[in-house]
Amino acid sequence: MKKYTSVTAYLADLPTMQREVAEVMRDLLADAAPDATEVLSYNMPAIKQNGQVLVYFATAQKHLGFYPTPDPIEAFASQLKGFQTSKGTIQIPYNQPLPVKLIREIVAFRVKQVEQKR
One Pfam family of this protein, by short name (predicted)? Predict the structure, then answer.
């Protein structure tokens, strides 16, 4: 797997449809957590605040992987019923619109978690 040096380089390497979805996610995360910094972590785009990664995302062949850590997966379980999930992952199929409101709520949950740990 290619090692990326920036989120921009990561996105530039994607096929058009995946890049478009990833760019929407990138903009959504920047808006949902304006005090966070965009980083690459584990070779995936992520946002970090107060030294902690809030969420990651990465493209796959048939879905966008959204990695908000395990706690939000549990906290939002009822709202995630229509998505494939695992301990810390939400798979958002490309043939469905991004669940913008839910993503914003999950990011806000993570920001609150990180702030409480300070």
Answer: DUF1801
CA distances from 77 to 1, 8, 87, 110 (A): 32, 32, 11, 15
How far is 85 from 49, CA to CA, in rounded Å? 24
- CATH classification of the domain holding 93: 3.90.1150.200
Question: CA-to-CA distance for 32 and 106, rounded, in angstroms?
Answer: 9
Provide the residue range defining the domain that includes 86.
7-112
Query: Is residue 75 a part of any domain in this protein?
Result: yes
Assigned domain for 104 exists: yes
Residue 117: per-residue pLDDT: 81
pLDDT band of 17, cuts 50, 70, 90 = very high
